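Ticket #4471: structure export looks truncated?
Reporter: QA, pipeline team
Priority: medium

Steps to reproduce: submit the single chain below to the structure queue and open the exported record.
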Amino acid sequence: MKNTTPIALALLSVLLTAACSASPSPEPSAGTAAAGLPASLPKPDPAQQEALLAALAKINPRLPDDQAIDKARRLCGRLLGQSTADQLIAAAKTEFSGDVPALPDDDAQRIISAIGANGFCR
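Actual output as written to the record:
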């Protein structure tokens, strides 16, 4: 029994040395909550999709397209990731820039508001 204490201390020393010298964990990827975006993006149900497309059409008839829901989900991820207002507007303009050339800030803000009010972005 007298020899177990030194053996335990030696084993603990080896374990601590190994743990401290282990390589650090990799940086979080863009799809993780630590990077500002949730790991999985909320998805609207069919009724929410229809309401979202209708809201986008009211903002600008050229906004709804086959990718509008995916674009809205990515913007939702930024909303949940607590991006700043300026970052959200820039992201909305980037996401929908192919649909509407030179999307004004007002429309970008209205898109963000429509996504936030839709109910799926939680």
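Status: closed, not a bug. The export was complete when the record was re-opened. Leaving a note from the reviewer for reference: Confidence is low (pLDDT under 50) at residues 4-36.
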